[in-house]
Amino acid sequence: MNVSRRSFVKSALASGVFPLLPGCFSHKGYVANSKVRLACCGLGGMGGNDIEQFTSTGLCDIVALCDVDLGAEHTVKSLKRHPSAARFRDFREMFDRMSGAFDAVVAGVPDHAHFPIAMRAMKEGKAIYSEKPMGHTFREIQIMIDAAEKYGVVTQMGNQGHSCDSYYQMRDYVRTGVIDPNKVRKIETHMNYPRRWHKWNGNVARMPVTTCPRPDTMSEKDWLAWLGTVPENLPFSKDLHYGEWRSWYKFGNGCLGDWGAHIMDGIHEFFELGLPTEIVISDVRGWNKYVFPMADTLTFRFAATAKRKALDVVWREGIGNTPELPKGFVVKGADGIPKSGGQDFGKEETLPAGKEIWMEDGTAWQGGSHNSPLLKCGASDAEIPEWEYRGGGCNWPNQHYENFLRAVRGEIKTTSPFAVAGPLSQLFTLGCIAQRLNRSIRFDPVQKQVVADAEANALLAPPTRPGWEEYYCL
User: What was the pLDDT predicted at 163?
Assistant: First the structure.
């Protein structure tokens, strides 16, 4: 890698030396050479982290903050850091009252809430940065893909490694034949850290498990806004709010939706996998009809195309559900990459989240998550081919945030637009359906329908709450 080239590109972008690139466009209302005006939905957890990362780029001003619980401990940091930003409890009110005052929107909210915020933004010509996965259901993601094309706005999904080393390395290795998809024997992907729902050990008989009074800082109206498109009027519960939503089929996309985008993204894009023809589920432990299993293995089967042969990608999650490791595999730390985002159950975590690409000639490549580069198992660093880097310098992790803001300014294109991130996110929703029903499913990637399974097919587009139908229309 050419370090001096990296520094030059980053400096050139920062100074405005590079002209507007062909095929790039800025947000329709963005004022040239000014900071991007951001409206941020979700102030705690990942939403709070997104605000910090966007702010650190120096390329934006935070002009609006939105969260259903503005008085909660997890929102205070963002509120204090941006005291002049307008404050809202409902994104719909934020758009109604000050849509003309911001250029782009950040959806750092639970999985089930990405879709309506993104749709409102795109319909009003705003650039949108949505956390991963793009949406909660297959149908929602398809509508988001179509909306991005129709309205022509800048879009980005929050799989941050897609703007750093792991992305560009995979791109160049596939393009130059270092890793030829036609010579891959199998691909293993895995995330085996403890998850939030493991505390119940699969023994969940109702949703939520427990109820409790709403905090004084949140009204009933605020809670209904949090439930959003989910049709049930569920009572407030700490089993749902404060990050616990990821445990439940009706709100989150589980481990696969959380970590799959950081592990499978480069493989999915550059192997041109698209949508699978079958998802086979096995090794299931602790299944129940409300929250994700304690452990399971999903095999995604992709049909052959004109560019590659048929290929299986295996996903393993759950403590101890680890794959066979190739000879020469090296266990390396995550170097600042977050682990589970859930509780620590005292289990020794020895295998980092990641992937192994097994080649037909007996060699294998290993990779981690996020921005972790690929390593050839058993090879020295000198034997790892270099790759051309075009990201402008990887200041992990805010390069992905810079990528989005510079795209809004019209300087570059986003690396993970909805057209790219959408099919990847749809893949996760199909895996979640197999987990939810605890059975394998066949899928028609052309018709985009589950084959011969009406119950599974219905989960592609589950019912929505009355009053939210407008977001499902282009």
Answer: 87
Q: What is the CATH number of the domain that holds 59?
A: 3.40.50.720
CA separation, residue 76 to residues 51, 58, 110, 128, 131 (Å): 13, 21, 18, 24, 21
Predicted confidence (pLDDT) at residue 251 exceeds the cutoff of 80: yes
Which pair of tokens denotes residue 78?
């963002």
Joined tokens for residue 351: 């295998």
The residue whose two tokens read 């300014």 is 409
Q: What is the pLDDT of residues 85-94, one digit of tens each?
A: 999 999 999 9
Residue 318's domain comprises: 163-200+249-384+419-458
The pLDDT value given to residue 23: 33
- Give the CATH number for residue 432: 3.30.360
Number of domains in the chain: 2
What was the pLDDT predicted at 253? Answer: 98
For 271-287, the pLDDT digits (tens) are 999 999 999 999 999 99
- 176 and 133 share one domain: no
| Residue 7 placed within a domain | yes
Enter the tokens of residue 180: 């030829």
pTM, rounded to two decimals: 0.90
Residue that has been written with the tokens 């290929």 in this structure: 311
Q: HEC states along the chain? A: CCHHHHHHHHHHHHHCCCCCCCCCCCCCCCCCCCCEEEEEECCCHHHHHHHHHHHHCCCEEEEEEECCCCCCHHHHHHHHHCCCCEEECCHHHHHHHHHHHCCEEEECCCHHHHHHHHHHHHHCCCEEEECCCCCCCHHHHHHHHHHHHHHCCCEEECCHHHHCHHHHHHHHHHHHCCCCHHHEEEEEEEECCCCHHHHHCCCCCCCCCCCCCCCCCCCHHHHHHHHCCCCCCCCCCCCCCCCHHHHECCCCCHHHHHHHHHHCHHHHHHCCCCCCCEEEEEEEECCCCCECCCEEEEEEEECCCCCCCCEEEEEEECCCCCCCCCCCCCCCCCCCCCCCCCCCCCCCCCCCCEEEEEECCCCEEEECCCCCCCEECCCCHHHCCCCCCCCCCCCCCCHHHHHHHHHHCCCCCCCCCHHHHHHHHHHHHHHHHHHHHCCCEEEECCCCEEECCHHHHHCCCCCCCCCCHHHHCC
